[in-house]
Amino acid sequence: MTSQQIEYLLTLAQERSFSKASQKLYVTQPSLSQFVKNLENELHTQLFDRSTSPIRLTPSGEAYVKAARKVKAIEEELTNQIADLSNLQTGKLNIGTSPFRASCLLPKSIAEFNKKYPGVELHIIENQMTDLEEATLEGVLDLYLGTGPFDEALFHVEALAEEQLYLAVPPDNPLNQELSAYQITVQDIRLDSAKLHKTPALNLSIFKEEQFIFQQQGQKLYSQAVTLCEAADFDPKVILYSERLETAFSWSLAGIGLTFLPDFLIRFGNYEKHPVYYKLNHPIATRQLCIVYKKSRYLSKAATEYINLLKQLIGYGTWEYKG
Question: Is residue 12 packed enough to be buried (19+ CB in 10 Å), middle (13-18) or exposed (0-12)?
């Protein structure tokens, strides 16, 4: 299994399209197709089912890709160990996170890390938590940022900060007029003001007849939203499901429905306009944001330095580097 075979097959498995994969690999589509055919002939098995659109892996292809990821992880781990001997003059660091955290939380840390260690390649992979967990176990990721629960028999988990969920209500919802004493402003959340702590939490059942926007089933915030509504003794009227929190934010602001948003999106999303926010009185509304990495994996100096940088940033509460 050569490095080229690994790169081509993993890219094609990810893109599920010969045209998209060839563009990403900077090769022609015919040459990529011929490469795969030659490999399949060499292995005496078909790796991709081309009868579907998008293409998909055959069982043999899934086995090959799984093995290719393991080989790539071993190669990168060796590269990182050698890079450590060069005192971070070279190296590679693969970090996983959700799309909203990639856009809201990581830009300053990425900029600072690149400034300190320009020779280290930093790759940010955005995906759902379940996929990030699997990629970390397979060695594709050095670490990822996420919320629990975690299998601590497999992962080393370091808590970074508390993440608070708020109820986001469209500004033109008539119920807002009756609930001014419960409302939290964006500045209250960003500045962690005294008012934020003094304002009472809302009884979510007040909005039991309203329309809701949830994350897609299978995402952690979906199950949390269901639990919050069940605790308030009602079944929510969910009219839309969103894969991204930024989309749910925009839909709520546009008046489509209510949704649940974490404070990191509110604080660092760089939005000018916001829905109306309310505190929630339930333990599940508070969750730990953690750095997670595989216990048996070699943790490079680059990964350690990035973790320390994040700890410094989060410790100041503003994500502005002071070191």
Answer: buried
Q: Count other C-beta atoms under 10 Å from residue 218's C-beta.
A: 10
| Partners of residue 125 on adjacent β-strands | 96
Q: Which of 307, 137, 146, 152 is nearest to 221 (CA)?
A: 146
- Say yes or no to pLDDT of 316 above 60: no
Domains of the chain, with CATH numbers?
1-76 (1.10.10.10), 162-287 (3.40.190.10)
Q: What pLDDT was estimated at residue 248? A: 94
> Does 249 score more than 90 pLDDT?
yes
Q: Rounded to whole angstroms, how far apart are CA atoms 239 and 251?
A: 11
Distance CA 191, CA 258 (A): 24
Query: Would you tell me the crossing angle of helices 59-85 and 3-15 to the nearest 10 degrees?
Result: 120
pLDDT, tens only, 157-180: 988 888 899 999 999 999 999 999
Q: Is the model's pLDDT at 198 over the cut of 80? A: yes
Closest listed residue to residue 284, CA positions, set 147, 174, 130: 147
pLDDT, mean of residues 207-222: 91
Name, in order, each residue with C-beta under 8 angstroms of 194's C-beta and a sequence gap of 6 or more.
none
Backbone angles phi, psi at 53, to 5 degrees: -135, 110
Sign of CA dihedral 202, 208, 210, 211: positive
Count other C-beta atoms under 10 Å from residue 51's C-beta.
7
